[in-house]
Each structure stands twice: as C-alpha cells, then as structure tokens.
Amino acid sequence: MEVVIVPDAAAGGELIAEAMAQLLRRKPDALLGVATGSTPLPIYQALTAKVRAGAVDTSRARIAQLDEYVGLPAEHPESYRSVLRREVLEPLGIGIDAFLGPDGAAEDVRAACQAYDAELARAGGVDLQLLGIGTDGHIGFNEPCSSLASRTRIKTLTEQTRVDNARFFDGDIAQVPHHVITQGIGTILEARHLVLLATGEGKADAVAATVEGPVAAVCPASALQLHPHATVVVDEAAASKLKHADYFRYTFVNKPEWQGI
C-alpha cells in the first residue's frame, strides 16, 4: 500500500486531482469512481481548476457512483446522483449521459444492485476509485464486519448515520432514508487504482488500522492492503497514529519512479 502524508486537505486534493488529470491525459474516456461527502471536495475543486485552466480535458470522462439512497427519486436534491451532478459533473463539464449509478428508486432493489455491477463490467471497470473512510474504518457504506468479498448490495443505515445526515434534509431525520445501495468491498477492489483520502485527527485510528493493522472485516478499509495499486493520502493529523509515518514520508519522496500517485 502506498501512503502519502501531506500537510493538509488542500494539498491532498491537489495531489489526487493531478493523478486523475494524468490518467485522463493517458486515457481521455477513463471511468472515474467518485464519492460524496465533504472529504473529496478539495479533489473536485482542484480538478475543476485544472479543467478551467486548460490543463486537462474531461469532456470524454465517465463517472461512476459509489453509493445511493434507496427510495429517493434520482431528481431529489439530496439523492447522491443529484449531489454528484452539482459537485462533480457540472463543474467538470461532464454530461449526465456519462454517469453510471445504481437505481435507488427501482422496484426490485436487489436486481438493481446486480445490474449496476454488470454495468460497471460492461463499461470496462473503474479506472480510479476515490474513497473516504469512516472513523470505524468503513468505506462506502460497508460497515465493520462486512464481507471482504461483498458485491453491490442493500445496507441498512445506522441510527447515528441517519442523525448525522439529517442536516441535509432540513434537520428532519424522518426524511432520511433507512437504506442505501453501496458497492461492496469486492466490487470496490476491482477498480484498477484505489485512492483513499483521510483528513483530521478523528480518522487517525481508522487510518492506522487500515494501513498497519491486520486485514480484517472489523476494519473494512483494511481490504485495500490486498489491492495491487492502492494509495492512501492523509494529512498530518490523520497520520498521527501511524507507527511508521517517517518511513512513509521517506519512501514517497525518494522513490525514483515517482511521477504522481
């Protein structure tokens, strides 16, 4: 696993955005897996700045969704499809026809999960998948003790997650869906490059378990240790519990083949 320690979230966003830009220069129609939440926003902002500066062309890029609420229509302002349209597609100038995502409003949600895995395969697979991490080590909505071989499936949101997300629904927890569709860990691991960004001291324990702990279902993100090209980008606060932080700093700066992450 490649670990990169950066000064702050903005530096992490710039580093990852440049990796995405390099990918798009090599493969203009690359399929980029994206996530919602506040953590990846510096990445999207940095990549948007590169597009506006003419440093990269995203006109042929494709976008794949990591997860989606169950029961919200696609046009609902807080569906993850709508959020990604506002935060990723529109700023990058990518049309909705280049967007792949599960149908959270489907009558048969289990079939929709299987259909999304099949759609990702038909599209040639995800080239680069962005990930965040929860304080308990979850990725996507794969909570602790999720199967490390799991596929895209329905998951039940914890009460705390619904309370946390109520701020997006006018503070009304009754409006927050009880279920989501999420790519499973097995699905996530099929992407060619996994890039996890974590910032803040609150993520330090989860980062240490992911990078230096055993591969275990109790920390779903630890499955990244099994991937041939996984990069973990962390700020100093999120790296504070790493026992080998100095080693990671040295190897990243000094590896002769480095041309990005």
Automatic annotation (TrEMBL):
Q: Which residues form the Glucosamine/galactosamine-6-phosphate isomerase domain?
A: 10-225
Part of the allosteric site (site feature) positions: S146, R153, K155, T156
User: What's the catalysed reaction?
Assistant: alpha-D-glucosamine 6-phosphate + H2O = beta-D-fructose 6-phosphate + NH4(+)
Pathway given for this chain reads: Amino-sugar metabolism; N-acetylneuraminate degradation; D-fructose 6-phosphate from N-acetylneuraminate: step 5/5
Keywords recorded for this protein, A-Z: Allosteric enzyme, Carbohydrate metabolism, Hydrolase
What InterPro entries does UniProt report for this protein, alphabetically? Glc/Gal-6P_isomerase, Glucosamine6P_isomerase, Glucosamine6P_isomerase_CS, NagB/RpiA_transferase-like
- Per the Swiss-Prot or TrEMBL record, the active site comprises D67, D136, H138, E143
Q: Which GO terms describe its cellular component?
A: cytoplasm
**UniProt activity-regulation remark:** Allosterically activated by N-acetylglucosamine 6-phosphate (GlcNAc6P).
BP-aspect Gene Ontology terms: carbohydrate metabolic process; glucosamine catabolic process; N-acetylglucosamine catabolic process; N-acetylneuraminate catabolic process
Q: Which SUPFAM superfamilies match?
A: NagB/RpiA/CoA transferase-like
**GO MF term (any one):** identical protein binding
Domain of life per record: Bacteria
Q: What is its EC number?
A: 3.5.99.6
Known role: Catalyzes the reversible isomerization-deamination of glucosamine 6-phosphate (GlcN6P) to form fructose 6-phosphate (Fru6P) and ammonium ion.
Quote the NCBIfam families the UniProt record gives: nagB (TIGR00502), PRK00443.1-4 (NF001684)
The record's comment on protein family reads:
Belongs to the glucosamine/galactosamine-6-phosphate isomerase family. NagB subfamily.
Q: What is this protein called?
A: Glucosamine-6-phosphate deaminase
**UniProt gene name:** nagB
